[in-house]
Structure formats: structure tokens, C-alpha cells
Amino acid sequence: MTNFDDYCKKIDEQIEEGARLFKIHDEDLCMLCGAHGEDKKSLFINCWYNIKEAVPEVLDLSRVEEFKNRGYYLRICKSCRAELLVYLERWRNHMISRRGLPMDHDGNLEDFRDEANIPMRVFGGLKMMTEEEYNKEKGKC
Length: 141
What we know:
Elements: H1 3-24, E1 41-45, E2 59-60, E3 72-76, H2 78-96, E4 118-122, E5 125-129, H3 131-138
Antiparallel strand pairs: 1-3, 2-3, 4-5
């Protein structure tokens, strides 16, 4: 089996596991912090990217018939939702601060550092790095 075949098999297993866990999950349990009780909220994320790379707890719903086009799912408490909104606000503010800066069609900022000549995919986006930055990131894998 090739690495690609192994990757596809792993993804397929994650999808099957997501469908299985969705059917048996406790709707009163926050899938992130573990708080248990009523009034949990459903969070769906669908941006055509494997969200499990960033949030391993999400369930892929592509094999759950009634939600197959909704993407990924988390059941979260109000505190986790509030914290998510804090990060979404920070993300939004950071991203709109880039308006007008030189970038490509994918939103990658032009990196004018001559030494930043190593392209690296980070969560599906391209980041140009120096050799030092690359070695530091490579060590995290």
C-alpha cells in the first residue's frame, strides 16, 4: 500500500467512526471540555477541509444521512461556544487588517524576505518560510 492509500484508508476509518460516534453521543456532554448537563449547542463546520487536523474531537458527518452535507460536528457548552466566538472575532479582525496588502488569489501575503524561499502547506494554506522557520515547523510533525 502506498502512503496515499494509507491516508485514504485512515480518512475512511475516521468518517465511519464519526458516523458511529454521532449515533451514540450524549447530547448533554460537551465534546471539548467535558462539561455535562443540559443546554449544549451543536456546532457544524463545513469548509471543505479536514477539520480533524486542528480539532481531533470533531465528528465527520459525511456518512450520517440527515447531516451528510453539513461537514464536521461538535456538541459544545456555552463556555466553549463563547471562547470560540472570542477566537473568531480575533481571527476576523486579524484577517481584515490585511486588506489592501499585496497577496495572491488565495490570500497568501507576499513575503518579500529573500530568505523566505521554502513553501510549506499549513492547514491547506501556503506559508513561505526561512530555513530556520521550516526546521522549527518540521520538528513539530
